Amino acid sequence: MDRTAPAPRELLEIAVEVARDAAATAHRMRAEGVSVAATKSTATDVVTAADRAVERQVMEALHRLRPADAVLGEEYGAGGPAGPGGVRWILDPIDGTVNYLYGLPHCAVSLAAEVDGQVVAGVVRNVSTGEEWTATRGGGAWRDGERLRCSTETDLGQALVATGFGYDPGRRAHQARVIAELIPHVRDIRRLGAAALDLCLAAEGRVDAYYEKGLAAWDLAAGGLVAGEAGLRVGGLGGLPPGPDMVIAAPPALFGPLHTRLADLDASGGP
Q1: pTM of the predicted model, to two decimals?
Q2: Cβ contacts of residue 67 below 8 Å, gap of 6+?
Q3: pLDDT bucket at 84, cuts 50 / 70 / 90
Q4: How far, in Å, are 45, 54, 93, 168 from residue 48 at the CA level?
Q5: Do the beta carbons of residue 61 and residue 71 sit within 8 Å?
Q6: What CA–CA distances, in Å, run from 154 to 109, 142, 181, 233, 254?
C-alpha cells in the first residue's frame, strides 16, 4: 500500500530531537568511562557499550514517534528499504568510535531519513562539541542557523583533502599507497576518523574536499546530504553513484581533477 511521506522538514525535526538526546547519552557515557564491548571486521574495528546503548535509544525513540518506519542501524538495525512512500531511518550511533574510545573530539551521531531510496533529511551532531549540521533535500545545509557553502577553491594543488582508512590491513596498505601518490598534488591530507563529520567539514569549507573507499550507508547518508546541499558534488568513480567502492565530495571545480587522480591511482581497488 502506498503511503505519503511527511515533508522533509518534519522528518528533520524528528531527526534533530532524537539525535540530540542520543548525543547527550553518548557524551554522558563517555564521561562515566567507556570500554570496548566487541570487535567487528578486525581487532581494531571496535564497538563500545555506548554504540549499542545509543542505537537502542534511537530505535526506541523512532518506534515511539513513527512506529511504521523502518530503521537501518550500524549495530542492530537491519531494516530494508521501506515500501513506496515509506520512511527508512539510517543511523550511525557513534561515527568515529575509536576517537570516542580515546576521548578525541571527532565523533558524532548521524541520523538520516530516506524516502523511496533518496535521503531527504539528515542531522550530524558532534558528541564532544555539540556542533550540529542539518540538511533537507532542496532546502540547503545549515550549522547553528548559518547556511553552508562549500569551498570555492579551484586548484587541486591548493586543496586540503580529508580521507579515511578501512580496518582491513590489506585495504589500509592500498589506501596508504594511494595517499603517497596523491599528496604531492594537493595542499595536504587530513585523516580525522569520522566520515560523517568529514563530509560536514567539507560542506562548510573547513576542508576543501573529501574522498574515501569503504563507506557504509550509515556513514554516508546524513553527511552526504549535508555535503550535497552545501554545493559539493558527491559521487563515485567512473560515473557511479557514491557508495562502498568510493565516495568523492568536492566543489565542482575540484571534483574532476580529484576524480582523475583517484582513478589513475586505482583508489577504489584493493581489498
Answers
A1: 0.94
A2: none
A3: confident
A4: 10, 10, 11, 19
A5: no
A6: 31, 23, 20, 13, 6
